[in-house]
Each structure stands twice: as C-alpha cells, then as structure tokens.
Amino acid sequence: MKSIIAGQQTQTVYKDLRKLAEVAATMMDDSLKGKKPEVNDTKTYDNGTKVVPAYLLQPVSVDKSNYKQVLVDGGYYTEGDLK
C-alpha cells in the first residue's frame, strides 16, 4: 500500500484475510462434523485432475482513490500503519 500511496504502483487486488480465515475454519469445522462444507464455485478451479469445489472470495481492486475506504475504514490497517 505504501507504494500505491507513493505513486510507485497503481493498484493491487485485496481479499480480506480475516474473511478467508473465517471461511476456512467453517469449512474445516463442517468437514470434521461430517457435514458438506459450503462452496460458492463448482466450475472454475481445475487442478489438472478434476474441478475442485471452492469458496472464492470476491477480490477488490484497491488504488490510491479507495484504499482508505477499503483498508482503513474496513479495519485492516490504521492510518499510522501506512505512513
């Protein structure tokens, strides 16, 4: 983010790791309980052997115009973290 703020990079793709951890933990918990984990994609993740059901997080394009809204207001960083 510091490179984007400094104008050295134009954008990055953000997926909230907190949400990723939450989804992964829920999927593991479901598996351990013998329940079928929730997935939201059954078509696009092909590992070369088969299409693997997955839970894909929606990526967010972050740039100089929206990093505060997405990352600071979203609680991922503080303003001080990005100085």
From TrEMBL:
> What name does UniProt use for this protein?
Multiple sugar-binding periplasmic receptor ChvE
Classification via Gene3D superfamilies: 3.40.50.2300
State the superkingdom.
Bacteria
Which InterPro entries would you find in this protein's record?
Peripla_BP_I
